[in-house]
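R.M. (postdoc): so does anyone remember the format we settled on? I'll just put the structure tokens first.
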């Protein structure tokens, strides 16, 4: 939300909120958040590190944590719950753009678009063979909102669909889209494309590791638009270098920004993006307003003025910064 502060500061001022804007490079570390401990009643945060220690030191003044976005793995929610500090997020906010990104990667790899383009621009005329999606199997790890959207879009292309989740998935969804629910080892051993769409938590940290990379097909491509630490990045690099798998598309990383000495940067079979699969002006606009609304709810402030401002502004220029 920081790039849009010029637009929203007058609105927050009209709501009677005094705003602290720290200098942020991607996200705030624990130490950077602690520099403001005891100085704020509520926070709008991205992937800033609200660890147990940070939350304890920011309490008792801290009354609410309002996450811009969906994932809250950078927030120690248990500590917040124990201290009576609500943690709000905007669930289902980026389902369409993120699932679109997954399909874009699948199409790019299956049709070899990036490689064909690069070859011909460098003076070549190599007819690099591709595949139709109807010839491919997609495995989706995590069938939440985004995972299900990926399934729906891949179904339209005629892909064979495998799913894996630790919670039961509604039978009607499975039957409608012909999803085969399998265990994780079966999924990675059969899929041509493996899309990571689960949350990052204690059960999913380094879910894809060296042992699972060994079970993948040499032709498989791993796509991660969820959270970097779901994949053991060193194990992924090893699998790519040894050609245990054919490629990877990575929008998220264990450490962000990606280090400039990362081997991933020089790998021809890898497509990279800077945690950008949520890119969508329409989605961002909804998240801006919902995040402010969640902040006001946590601060127990009336919403009538906010709703009036929102209704008057929603038809304005959403791209203003």
């Amino acid at each position: 939300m920081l790039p849009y502060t010029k637009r929203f500061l007058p609105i927050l001022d009209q709501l009677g909120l005094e705003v602290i804007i720290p200098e942020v490079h991607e996200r705030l570390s624990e130490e950077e958040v602690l520099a403001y401990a005891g100085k704020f009643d509520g926070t709008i945060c991205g992937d800033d590190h609200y660890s147990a220690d940070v939350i304890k030191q920011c309490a008792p003044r801290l009354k609410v944590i309002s996450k811009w976005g969906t994932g809250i793995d950078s927030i120690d929610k248990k500590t917040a719950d124990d201290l009576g500090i609500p943690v709000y997020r905007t669930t289902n906010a980026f389902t369409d753009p993120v699932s679109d990104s997954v399909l874009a990667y699948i199409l790019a790899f299956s049709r070899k678009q990036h490689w064909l383009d690069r070859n011909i621009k460098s003076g070549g005329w190599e007819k690099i063979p591709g595949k139709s999606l109807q010839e491919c199997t997609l495995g989706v790890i995590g069938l939440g909102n985004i995972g299900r959207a990926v399934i729906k879009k891949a179904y339209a292309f005629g892909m064979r669909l495998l799913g894996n989740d630790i919670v039961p998935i509604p039978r009607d969804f499975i039957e409608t889209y012909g999803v085969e629910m399998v265990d994780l080892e079966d999924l990675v051993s059969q899929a041509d494309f493996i899309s990571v769409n689960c949350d990052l938590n204690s059960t999913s940290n380094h879910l894809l590791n060296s042992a699972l990379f060994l079970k993948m097909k040499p032709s498989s491509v791993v796509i991660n638009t969820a959270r970097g630490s779901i994949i053991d990045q060193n194990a992924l690099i090893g699998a790519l270098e040894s050609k245990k798998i054919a490629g990877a598309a990575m929008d998220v990383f264990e450490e962000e920004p990606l280090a400039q000495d990362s081997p991933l940067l020089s790998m021809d079979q890898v497509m990279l993006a800077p945690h950008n699969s949520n890119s969508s002006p329409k989605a961002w606009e909804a998240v801006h307003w919902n995040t402010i609304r969640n902040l006001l709810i946590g601060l127990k402030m009336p919403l009538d003025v906010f709703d009036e401002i929102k209704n008057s502004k929603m038809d304005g220029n959403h791209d203003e910064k």
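R.M.: ...and that's the designed sequence above, right after the tokens. Also worth knowing: The radius of gyration is 22 Å. The first strand starts at residue 42 and ends at 45.
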